[in-house]
Amino acid sequence: MAQELATTKGRQTYNFVYTPVRDDAGEICGAIAIGRDLGRLNADSRSDPPPHSGQVEVALEQAESLQDVKAQARELANAHQRQHALATTIDNIRRSLDIETIFNTTTQEVRQLLQCDRVAVYRFNPDFSGIFVAESFAEGWKALVGNLPVIADSYLQETRGGRYRHNETVAVADIYNAGHAQCHVEMLESFQAKAYAIVPIFHGETLWGLLAAYQNDGPRQWEAYEVELLAQIGVQFGVAIQQAQLLDRTQRQKEELTQTLNELKQAQTQLIQSEKMASLGQLVAGIAHEINNPVNFIYGNLTYVGEYIRDLLEHVQLYEQYYPDPPEAIAEHAEEMELEFLCEDLPKILGSMRVGADRIRQTVISLRNFSRLDEATVKAVDLHEGLDSTLLILQHRLIDPAHGPSIELVKNYRKLPKVECYAAPINQVFMSLLGNAIDAIESHFASQGDSNNGERVKPKIVVETAPLGKDRVEIRIRDNGPGMSEAVRSHIFEPFFTTKPVGKGTGLGLSISYQIIVEKHGGQIECHSQPGEGTEFVIQLPRSQGGCEGVGHPE
Asked: Rounded CA gap, 156 and 154, in Å?
């Protein structure tokens, strides 16, 4: 507003009209003034303003209005910047639910908008101590995140958040003139701060942390709109935290459900496989029992048959000795039946029958040892018996040309103590490993032939056993098949993973073997293999299971 001023200088009287001039910040930086010498005017004219004085006043009022318009434009620009920063924060929350990304991006934008030295996010611990978790700071200042220990503010801890828990904001223009305790000032100095504005961040109804703006180079008078901007950003941070935690909880639940579903599928498949093995064991045991009875009858009577045949042959010899000239009909019958050959071949036939019956008996024993239906609990067993029983069952695949080339079997057994274990599941492991070795050799040599760089190579499986100290034993099963790559080897113990053609493998044999050795017996099973170098499985078992009471029954 223009004002008029009269003054006297010496004998002359002057009249001035002036208006202030403001800078872009609205501060007065000067004035515009127009003066006139009243001593040169007569008395009548002295009371009348000059013809152009009204125009001057209008011009001065327009200049003042222009300053007001500029101030309003600045306020609108600041409001637009605040709305843009808030909109950007909301957009960041919508585009990314990664809370760390949201914190880092928004603190940088807010610091640039406020033109302060640092904007930081502070998170409370359950005891209301806390740490800085994100920040943006101007060049020349030290980082707080990761460089400060846990901050234990006694006031915040005792009041469980102080005035911030009531959603109040704090703006301090000068930490040295704010009435702070010395310990509080020292803490702020460790932040390199001279002035600050702090607003709370709520997660639902719970005080989660603080959003702080710091001026480090000197005091600063915080504007109301700046504190309001921080408060609005703090509210949006609370929304982001809630959404991020909800997403995290949802993802964890999804992972748990997926894991549970996979475990159920695996358990179902393994249960089916276990039922199949149990049924197979019962079938094998039943067949062995049914074969065993007549074989025992035959085998037991072979001794008597041998004695009877020996007596009859001796009787024929005595008859020929004392009656060298039998009647013609007897002589013709003896010649027709080839009596001499019969007397010579009959003992051999009887010996062959004895060998065959003995072989059947051994097979029956092996079948019973493999099924182990009478050993459903932990017992001390001879692992060599289990290996030999399994090899006997697979014998036809080792020597039968219909299944591929004959496979050389090498057994290097060292003396082993008896091992406490579930015999039937351990035999199942042996069957799986040996069966896989035979499959690998058959497919490899069927496609490659039996030569390697012009040299004849015989398919081979090596089974070795050895004690390991006083507490463990080791079984190694090695073949000279095609081997496998590291990519394949790293997955072979996973359920349903198989390299066999569709219909030839379920992908469960090695997975179940791993569970039997590692989970049920506390042992180890490893696979060593390289392409073209064959494959070796190494099993280590503890000699003792710590007593039968401490070991669960096999599934």
From this structure: 6
Rounded CA-CA distance 407/98 in Å is 59
Candidates 397, 97, 427; CA nearest to 242 is 97
Q: How many CA atoms lie within 13 A of 374 on its CB side?
A: 7
High-pLDDT (> 70) share of the chain, %: 71
Residue 130 DSSP SS3: strand
C-alpha distances in Å from residue 514, one per residue of 279, 505, 509: 21, 16, 9
* Residue 35 three-state SS: strand
- Please report, for residues 18, 30, 79, the alpha-carbon distance to residue 59 in angstroms, rounded to integers and kept in the order given: 11, 16, 30
How far apart CA 426 and CA 545 sit, in angstroms, is: 14
Contact 448, 440 (CB under 8 A): no
CA-to-CA distance for 307 and 384, rounded, in angstroms? 36
Distance, in Å, from the CA atom of 542 to the CA atom of 346, rounded to the nearest integer, reads: 53
* DSSP summary character for residue 379: E
Q: What share of the chain is helix, strand, coil (3-state, %, to 5)?
A: 55, 20, 25
Cβ 234 vs Cβ 132: under 8 Å: no
Residues 365-379 have a mean pLDDT of: 64
- Residue pair 172/116 in contact (Cβ under 8 Å)? The answer is no
- Which of the four pLDDT bands, split at 50, 70 and 90, describes residue 327? confident
Task: List the beta bridge partners of residue 37.
Answer: 14
Q: One-letter amino acid identity for 330?
A: I
Spatial contact of 368 and 381, defined as CB atoms under 8 Å apart: no
Across-strand partners of 214?
Answer: 118, 196
Q: What is the rounded CA–CA span in Å between residue 147 and residue 196?
A: 20
